[in-house]
Amino acid sequence: MQSSFLETIRARRPSRRLLIALGITGLVLLFSFVLLYARYFGPVTPATIPATEFIVAPDSEFETIAQELKAGGYIKSMTAFRIAYGTRGGMSDIKEGGYMISPSMDAWTIGELLSRPPYLAWITFPPGWRKEQIAEHLAKKLNWTNEQKMQFITVDTAPTFEQIEGVYFGDTYLIPSDQAPAQVAARLRDRFEEAFAPYAAQTVEKNVTWTETLIMASLIEREAAKNDKHLVAGILWNRINDGMRLQVDASLQYIRGEEGNWWPQPRSEDKDLESPFNTYKYSGLPPHPIANPSLDSIEAALNPADTNCLYYLHDGNGQIHCSASYAGHRANVDRYLR
């Protein structure tokens, strides 16, 4: 009985030949997997190569990004990258910006890196914003703390009092996420100086200072429509030259602006606000720019229209109407704003 049991066990035990065959098959499959991995998912180069910036442009499609990775020599196979990135949870959420990757990384590592927030963030803001607005936008994009946001806003980040506003050029930037607020401010100022350089000679020719040009351009940026900046410039310079108060509503908005509403609708009582920026109360230009102007506004400040108008308003359609007299201005108010 015992002998029969042992014979049954031996009969069911895999033969040595079968075990060898299974082992060989396993090795072949493992070797094939390694070859497949190396050919499609492995790094482009086994040598250690320092990571470089790979830029994902705004609104880039996933397929475009994969093609650029392949063309740039970062991955061996677009299909393998799709699989590797797909395991991260999707194929449509690569954030625009700059990433540090290397051809020494495999497809899985690159997929992991591209699923994280980018090292370099695309940041765009338009002309006409004040510094606090820019700070809020930067804080959201760069994940700044409130302390970092305040560091950007404070005077300490500006080399001079005149550069508190007006020199943080509205444009598109690619900014490192770990760059200090003061460095970001310097980057924006450098871009402004580069853009403003062609106009420097004109300020000398027009016998106006760099600061006066910027202050006037900031008022024009907030007050004028796109197609009437030169006319608004001519009217405001006329008032300066005649010793009149500028009476610019945008200056009242600058005084009252606060988080959540940086450019509030002016009220009649705002004209009595005590502030050196109140152009209804004090003659001349404000102490420094009230916003960051576009090059169009700088161009208008330096090349104002030749006009005898001293007053202006915009109707409900944004069309400007100007007058050389206060009586004419009142008539325009009755006609276009009532």
Helix % is: 40-55%
Instruction: Output the strand order for the largest sheet.
Output: 1-2
Q: Rg, please?
A: 33 Å
What's the number of domains? 4
Structural class: mainly alpha
Count of beta strands: 6
Main sheet, how many strands, which sense, barrel? 2 strands, antiparallel
**Mean of residue pLDDT values:** 87
State the distance separating the first and last CA atoms. 116 Å
Give the helix/strand layout.
Blueprint: H1 2-12, H2 16-41, E1 52-56, H3 62-71, H4 78-86, E2 97-101, H5 107-114, E3 120-124, H6 131-142, H7 146-153, E4 172-176, H8 181-196, H9 200-205, H10 210-223, H11 229-241, H12 249-256, H13 295-302, E5 311-314, E6 320-323, H14 326-336
Antiparallel strand pairs: 1-2, 3-4, 5-6
Describe the model.
The protein has 338 residues and is mainly alpha-helical. It has four domains: 40 residues; 63 residues, Dna Ligase, domain 1, CATH 3.30.1490; 75 residues, no CATH class; 129 residues, no CATH class. It has 14 helices and six strands. The strands form three sheets. A two-stranded antiparallel sheet has the order 1-2. It has a two-stranded antiparallel ribbon with strand order 3-4. Strands 5-6 form a two-stranded antiparallel ribbon. Strand 5 and strand 6 form a beta hairpin. Helix 10 packs across helix 11 and helix 11 crosses helix 13. The longest helix has 26 residues. It is elongated and about 110 Å long. The model has no long low-confidence stretch (mean pLDDT 87).
